[in-house]
Design a protein that fits this description.
8 strands, 5 helices, alpha+beta
Length: 310
Amino acid sequence: MLYLYITLSLVVGYIILTICLYVFKSRVLMKKLKESERRNRDLAEKYEAINRNLEEKIQEEVEKNRQKDHLLIQHSRLAAMGEMLASIGHQWRQPLNSLSLIIQDVREEFEFGQLDEIYIDSFTKESMIQIKHMSRTINDFRKFYKSNNEKTPFSIGSSIEDALSIFSSSLKYYGIEMEFEYRGELMAYGFPNEYSQVVLNILTNSRDAFVQKNIKNRKIKILLSETKEFITAEFTDNAGGIDAALLDKVFDPYFTTRPHGTGLGLYMTKMILENMNGFVTVDNFENGARFCLTVPKVIQAVKPEMVSVS
């Protein structure tokens, strides 16, 4: 019997010891679990704080970039206004000369006593023709530089023609021959006035290269092509091309090789086309530079027609 009691006592003691150890280990594990949960909460709070700080920094950088782009756009508009005033000066030179001759002729007719009703009618008619031409020039420029708020279908050929009509006097003044393969209603999707501004930027770039390098027999050629999704306008000139080491930099803001250039024209060209889901590329082709303006397509092209502007 004594042996049995001792055995039972040992068994009970072992069970009690086991239970005590289990309770002790459970408390230790619970304590570690609580500490782990606390550390996890601390890490989560730190992570949240880091995320909030990161979001604030991202917003700050986005705002800085937005302000920088706005400033670049403002500088580009000022440069475009200067180009516009120069083009208006070219456009107005001939009608102003005509008005000057007409007015001088009045004095001569007065001295010879030939100021009659017929002459006055002719004087008024000729003067109004020149004044209307000058007024039409202003209206064309106002339309050209008016911003588009929404993307719309537009004719690539018509937008290029609008830019050529604005730039035609400058082309003649600097002796630049223009060849444009017009493809009718080849429709794109984007901002027509901004696209015309891009074309004007490319033409201005070529004109300045001709003048800076004193190139003779100056020529610019425009070709249109299409794929299933895009329309590309290819501008090539014979102005000697671009230094190969500078090809990757021509679309950078404020980069220019001209003494008085702003370095914004080609950068704005890139921005405008990318805003239309398009892109621009440049390379050296034959004895000049080639710029390719690519924008999304709306409809297929019609039969091409050759148009020459000189």
